[in-house]
Write a structure and sequence with these properties.
transferase; 248 residues; globular; metal-binding; alpha/beta; Isoprenyl transferase; EC 2.5.1.-; ditrans,polycis-polyprenyl diphosphate synthase [(2E,6E)-farnesyl diphosphate specific] activity; Undecaprenyl pyrophosphate synthetase
Length: 248
């Protein structure tokens, strides 16, 4: 009974101009949550997947334009097959559920070439089937690593200019940060204003390494399956209260 009134007061105290346009979320703590409740790892991942749609609904409620969800890192691809295979299946089901909502545009970000072919195809199909939806853009980061993204961006940039006949000397003369930004997985999107990490860990681990240079960070103690609307609103409140100087 207490939380709805508390949440309403927090929302009223946050003017729209103080809210982020792009929020990145590191959905961390599924395995530790499962261990804490005495269940197996797959149960933790399913509980985490079930909390994705509520989060996106909360983002919609306050008018956020872009959300990036880190679901699987490139490092996670080295987990034992007994854990990785069920996890990929859970991610595929979660993304399919988002598609079925017909509310959000899905955009996979990550090294899809490192994923099993079936998983990569399902992610591409999710993007294609939601391309024309006029709703919030949801980046699903699967097989994602910040260093890998930058390497991919540079590789794409070099390939593009090689096709144009640009020499390395000419490219070295003109290349700047915008050239690289134009080849990132999130090209054309605003950089994240706010990055949230759950589970109490206070590090980025390579999440949106390039894009988060001027982001604000919020670290929440709750494991991802326990992350609530009130936790989300507290993150927004903390962001709104900060003096953002854009690195100046």
């Amino acid at each position: 009974m207490f939380y709805p009134a508390y949440e309403a007061r927090m929302l009223q105290a946050m003017p729209a101009e103080s809210l982020p346009r792009h929020v990145g979320v590191m959905l961390d703590g599924n395995r530790r949550w499962a261990k804490a409740v005495g269940r197996d790892t797959a149960h933790g991942h399913r509980a985490g997947a079930a909390n994705i749609e509520p989060l996106l609904t909360w983002c919609d409620e306050v008018g956020i334009q872009v959300v990036t969800l880190w679901l699987l890192s490139t490092d996670n691809l080295h987990r034992p097959e007994a854990e990785l295979v069920p996890l990929l299946g859970i991610i595929e089901e979660a993304v399919a559920s988002l598609v079925d909502q017909r509310r959000w545009r899905i955009h996979p970000v990550g090294a899809l070439n490192l994923l099993p072919v079936a998983t990569a195809e399902r992610l591409r199909a999710a993007e294609e089937s939601t391309r024309d939806i006029d709703g919030m853009l949801v980046n699903v980061a699967v097989g994602y690593g910040g260093r890998h993204e930058i390497a991919d961006a540079v590789r794409s940039l070099l390939t593009e200019h090689a096709a144009k006949g640009t020499s390395l000397e000419e490219l070295a003369e003109i290349i700047d940060v915008e050239h690289i930004a134009d080849h990132l997985y999130t090209a054309g999107q605003p950089d994240p204003d706010l990055v949230i990490r759950t589970s109490g860990e206070q590090r980025l681990g390579g999440f949106l390494l390039w894009q988060s240079a001027k982001s604000e960070f919020y670290f929440c103690e709750a494991y991802w399956p326990d992350f609530r609307r009130v936790d989300f609103l507290r993150a927004l409140r903390a962001y709104a209260q900060r003096d953002r100087r854009g690195g100046r």
